[in-house]
Amino acid sequence: MKIGIVCPYSFDSPGGVQYHVRDLATELIRRGHAVSVLAPVEKAEVPNFVCKVSGSYSVPYNGSVAQLSLSPKAVSETKAWLEEGNFDVVHIHEPLAPSISLIALASSKSPIVATFHTSMVKSRSLKLAVPILRPLLDRIGGRIAVSNEARRTLIEHQGGDAVIIPNGVYREPIATAPDIEKWKGTPERPTLFWIGRIDEPRKGLHVLAGAMEEVVARHPNVRFIIAGRGDDTPVRELMEKYPDNVDFAGDVDPQTRNSLYHGATAYIAPQTGGESFGIVLVEAMSAGTLVIASDIEAFRLVLNGGALGRLFTSADSADLARVINDVLSHPQEAAQLAATGHEAAKMYDWGVVTDKILAVYSTVVGTASVQVENTDTLIDSLRQYFSNRKE
């Protein structure tokens, strides 16, 4: 098949959706499909299957700041990509994001599959926009949600339903990653790993920081390995407060990240919300590492209510400290739970996930797209609306 994949978020600030798109495209190409990915890119190095769109800008979105593109140039480039590609199917991620996904949704003449990643409790802007965008939503032939939370958001905010197909991981590179000796956890010197956007509150570094004092008091040889990008001031302050217990790995590449997962005694996921799926949990489980996660809905589902990892009360540093201390005090039980999680992670392998996505493609290929009039006027109106929300 000739498959076009649209990613609304800039590859200059990579995150979960961008990695999902890249890995899906890689697996589809490995299977012999012709794939082109359209995404906003300014400076980042990207695979040769990525077609770059320029002119992204910052927009507050789901408790974060997303780099999106809805410029007149992006409109013309997206239309040209669609025309030249003449795809059997166009797979649009986050179709209502104010970016090239929305442009592609309005402009594609090919059958459309859409994947919904976002989880949110409420969104005033989305509530206002959906009635206007309803004709575009009707163009979607196959809908995918990456989790129950993403499906709930779709149903509550936009209507309709979707088949749940989770995010995927390449398990083998994580499971076989070589340990980094200086950060490898041992019974005498256990390591707890955190990775995320340091200056994004919902990623929960402050929750982990609040648990450190009690954990260090009970287990003075423990080490916290912190990795990620953003303003590292909070990490520097922790290193000053706990010079023997906190290390900063910086903004690590995927290979180093895999090694840190693999070598850790436990992976800590203290996110406070805004997560539709726990891909980082699956990555840690693929490494055979125990997961300790906040009990937000998306994480409870991945960990099967605590059967595949440990849960603590969200945003509660004291409860996180309690769970960490219990894990470190009972290493055999922790190892057994980690092994159970490792086995369960097989269902998220990209080979399994791609089979399910291809099955959705097969249901829409050859069908006609619903035509929508005055799409250029609609896009101009949306551009003006979101331009007023730039940061």
TrEMBL record:
The entry's keywords: Glycosyltransferase, Transferase
Listed InterPro entries: Glyco_trans_4-like_N, Glycosyltransferase_grp1
Gene3D superfamilies: Glycogen Phosphorylase B (3.40.50.2000)
MF annotations from Gene Ontology: glycosyltransferase activity
Every Glycosyltransferase subfamily 4-like N-terminal domain range: 14-169
Origin: domain of life: Bacteria
GO biological process: one example: carbohydrate derivative biosynthetic process
Protein name: Glycosyltransferase subfamily 4-like N-terminal domain-containing protein
Native source organism of the sequence: Gleimia europaea ACS-120-V-Col10b
